Amino acid sequence: MQGQTRNALVYHVTSYGADPTGKNDSTDALLRVFSEIGEIGSSNNNNNGHLMDGITNLGGVEINLDGGTYVINRPLHFPTPYLGNILIHGGTLKASDSFPTNGYLIELSASSSTQNQEKTTSVDQTLSTSSAAYNFEYITFRDLMLDCNYKGGGITITNSLRIGVDNCYIAHFMSEGIRVDSGHETLIRNSFIGQHITAGNDPGERRFNGTGIVLNGNDNVVNDVVIFSAQIGIMVSGQANLLSGVHCYNKAYGFGGTGIYLKLPGLTQTRIVNSYLDYTGIVVEDPFQLVISNNFFLGDAFIQFKSIKGIANGVNIVDNLFSGSGKGIDIVQLDGSFGNVDQVVVDRNSANGMNMKSTIARVAVKGNATSWTADFNRVLLFPNLIKHVQYTFSTTGNSFPNYALRNVSDNRVVIESNLVAPTSVYVTVEQGSN
To answer: Does an H or E element contain 40, and which?
Structure first.
């Protein structure tokens, strides 16, 4: 173990021949480190026990990149899965010009995307004899810069548990900055992700593509992360994920970009809180058990419900700030029709330069008449849907008219009395609850 410090499992990659200047290719040297750590996991000399059943606890083994820049021509990966408690930190990885476009700089999966068939078969045989439910557990990527050189992606994490991506800068990807498939409890925090290195107002913004983060799994957390250039900032197609403190200015909606896209119709179960959607908004397919709260939407950014089967259930969009340009943009919009709406609350939001939309609305109608119509179409989110009506009838005359709710349709409420009288009618309606 030539790069290991005495009495400690800290691997300094320069001791294995990796070139920290980035002038020479370091793929083979870095893969030797990964391979040697895999051998520890499969040896009988490991006394650290296990994490989850079948995952070997390596006790906090470190791969130290020694503050260098390393060029690689194929993905870095462990030769065998079922390893845990490993830290990879402290340097830069850069894809070479020959790096495969379908690969990722680091691949935390049972087999590499670029392995040949013989190696893949060997890994498949190992998988079939293991009792482990996950490929890896408690692997931490910290203080890394990943330069994909417009060749592939940054990090892919497949069927793994309790993985940490902390203080990383991932740039120049063509597919995804970080991709999480299956598994759960991946924490992505304090990181910067962008296809092109920019700070906004980029002349090439219309051409941004790729996705900053893909969460195709459950119970993951993205916290204090900036997505500064990509077609889609974060794509979520798993359940029970939490996005907090995210700043998306990846690509403006007007140029075809989306800040956060929730693509799990009818099973959303996602919370988006305390985040900043900067000229790019949120799209949700058939929202279900969704919370969007205490966020700031700038530059006419809005939330869109996209109908797949016409379901919106258990949705709370509350206490958000929307700031626009006065062009008449609605803060929440519908793409398609929704026939199954229940427990949807859009309320207590603040809009400046944009049109307020809500599922709870209040109107006062005054006049000396026998009929009063309260029209809620300007503010109610769903068309022709009022489930509850409350009203107060106040008259200043000497008569005591009889009055009744006569009609509720097309988001209008009609109240009539039997006598002409100077009257104020205060009406509150609700769309979201049965």
So the answer is: helix 27-42
- Whether the full predicted model's pTM is greater than 0.85, yes or no, is yes
Each residue of 236-288: pLDDT tens digit? 999 999 999 999 999 999 999 999 999 999 898 999 999 999 999 999 999 99
Pairing of strands 412-430, 403-409: antiparallel
Residue by residue, DSSP assigns 117-180 as: HHHHHHHHHHHHH---SSSEEEEEEEEEEEE-TTSSEEEEEES-BS-EEES-EEES-SSEEEEE
Which residue is associated with the tokens 């092109």?
196
Distance CA 314, CA 342 (A): 7
Calculate ∠ Cα 4-5-7, nearest 5°.
105
Query: Which residue positions in the chain have pLDDT lower than 70?
Result: 1-8, 43-49, 112-131, 434
The closest alpha carbon to 272, from 287, 294, 251, 257, belongs to: 294
DSSP string, 303-356: EEEE-SSSEEEEEEEES-EEE--SS--BSEEEES--SEEEEEEEES-EEESSB-
For residue 359, give the amino acid letter. Answer: T
Are 187 and 165 a contacting pair, CB within 8 Å?
Answer: yes
Interatomic CA distance for residues 212 and 87, integer angstroms: 23
Question: What pLDDT does residue 132 have?
Answer: 73
> Distance of alpha carbon 326 from its chain centroid, rounded?
28
- Largest Cα separation within the chain, whole Å, is 100
Dihedral sign, Cα of residue 117, residue 118, residue 119, residue 125: positive
Let me know how long the chain is: 434
**pLDDT recorded at residue 82:** 93
